[in-house]
Amino acid sequence: MKLNSYFFLFISLLVISCAEDKQGETYTSEEIEKASAELNTYFEKEFQKEVEESPMLQTRMGMKTSYGKWDDFSSEKYTEDLEQAKRRKEYLEEVNTAALNEQTMLSYQLSQRQLENQIEDYKYRFYNYPVNQMHGYHAELPAFLINMHQIDSIGDARAYISRLKGIEKAMEQIIEQLKLREQNGVIPPKFVFDRTLDASRNVISGKPFTSGAGSSALMEDFTSKLEKLELSLEERRQLISDAETALIDHVQPAYNNLIDFLQNQQKRATDEAGAWKFPKGEEFYANALNRYTTTGLSSDEIHEIGLSEVARIHGEMEKIKEEVGFEGNLQEFFEFMKNNEQFYYENSEEGRQAYLKKAKEIINTMKAELPKLFNTQPEADIVVKAVEPFREKSAGKAFYQQPAIDGSRPGTYYANLYDMKAMPKYEMEALAYHEGIPGHHMQIAIAQELDSIPQFRKFSFYPAYVEGWGLYSELIPKEAGFYQDPYSDFGRLAMELWRSCRLVVDTGIHSKKWTRQEGIDYYMQNTPAAESACVKMVERHIVMPGQATAYKIGMNRIIELREQAREQLGDNFDIAEFHDVVLTNGSVPLDLLEEQVNEWVKTKKN
């Protein structure tokens, strides 16, 4: 990846030739280089341990070691990880930070914080739902095989079959995790069971599980991937036969066991939605907000920020309503935007293909404008896909899958086209900018391609930074002259409004004891979104406490830092350089991002 020369100059200015510790001892540039190299070697060694322990991470990185295995999903792994975190923290406590260069010091701070959080969060290890409608293992394991496990040889095909067999043990560990959570007072609310049972049954529907129907999602994936191999007829038949046996003897029993457990647990579930129902739920939720936003904002403060932003955006929407000449109030305008057929593609295969084609055009148009806004661009390509049928009913509206770090797999923008009324044309620009370019693809692919940071930082994920950038990326094109259609600009505001409502509803559910229906009603009354989207969003809040607050809190902070820098630098402010500062250190907490921006401003002034 190409980084602009200015930014390297900026980094070099930060790497001082000598340093002084608290005792007044100074270090030469050679000593700083040596100490920094030693710590970075340690970081790399520890990261490789993480890779070695995770066959799934290896696959995500494009590696084919341990290709036929799954990760360890047992509860014992939590304890092993805790002890490892404590050992790493003890090592870092002995590091002389005064002898580190600035980039290595940032790595030290990030590693130290991650370890402290991991140790502190151990007490909340059972405060989540491993099987839920958003990202549960029941859907993630087959999705991993379909999207990540490439078959380029007979060996790869056999590794796929090995993973099919391994699903049985993995599911046993996951069911044990569910039992432990129930013992700790953590059971999903009732609605989660209908969603996850339906998705689980979908995995084991179709051939070879049932006759007289099309192939199951996994069988279809395996056979289609075999097509690109040069195999004899006998080799192909044998591999397909082995895959069918693995599906019937291992995958089907695994999912039947999960279905039986979920059906039994469903009888004990209630409609209570918020984290407040957990033991020490208030403390857990405060901790979750801290982790997701990397701020000290309380639930009440976040709730008030949301209410304020909703009111502001409603005001901007009023102006667009007047611009297009709509006569009626804002709620009536919302209904017009929800129901007028001009804003939607047909709910057909032709309509879905038209949507995907237009999404690709939006991304390609934005690509041409990137040099005006960014000095640094990723080498990895991006593709647009529809969410697979087996999980589209319960999956989110859109999401991004990062490219393989070795370049063997592009980044992917997934659009969920299950309900075309939930994917209006006027939101297409903002959605593509958020998930694709200049959003998550720019941010994540650039981080993976950096050669100036340790590997662990390329895979770090601070939601306020990552999702804050994604939402900020919906605004950048507006400032660059895009969204010329007022309805499309309304769509941009609708997306920002959606994230602002999240601040209100997430805190409402988990702190103020709102019901699921109260959350749905708030979205329905304050946004132009389809009812199905409102339901999905509230159900996402419920199973992922605090996560949805990261977007707007992160966006607001990035904008604040940018405008502070612009005010201090005046004509010397350069938007592309600012974006370099934000993007070329990988994912960082918001307070450390502020330090990076302030240092850049200071350097520019001198």
Can you walk through the features of this model?
By secondary structure, the protein is mainly α. Among the domains are: 137-271, no CATH class; 282-502 and 511-551, no CATH class. Helices cover 64% and strands 3% of the residues. It is built from 25 helices and five strands. The protein has a three-stranded mixed sheet, covered by helices on one side. Strands 1-2 form a two-stranded antiparallel ribbon. The chain is globular and about 70 Å long. The two termini are 28 Å apart. Residues 1-18 have low confidence and may be disordered.
Question: Quick summary of this structure?
Answer:
The protein is mainly alpha-helical and 606 residues long.
Question: Can you give keywords for this protein?
Answer:
606 residues, mainly alpha, 25 helices, 5 strands, disordered N terminus
**Secondary-structure element pattern, one letter each:** HEEHHHHHHHHHHHHHEHEEHHHHHHHHHH
Specify the overall morphology: globular
Mean pLDDT across residues = 93
Strand order of the largest sheet: 3-5-4
Per DSSP E runs of 2 or more residues, the count of β-strands stands at 5
Count of helical regions:
25
Please indicate the percent range of residues in DSSP E strands (runs of 2 or more): under 5%
The helix-and-strand class reads mainly alpha
CA-based gyration radius: 25 Å
The span between the termini is: 28 Å
Low-confidence stretches: 1-18
Biggest beta sheet attributes? 3 strands, mixed
Q: Please give the share of residues in helix.
A: 55-70%
Protein name: DUF885 domain-containing protein
Keywords: Coiled coil
InterPro entries: DUF885
Organism: Christiangramia oceanisediminis
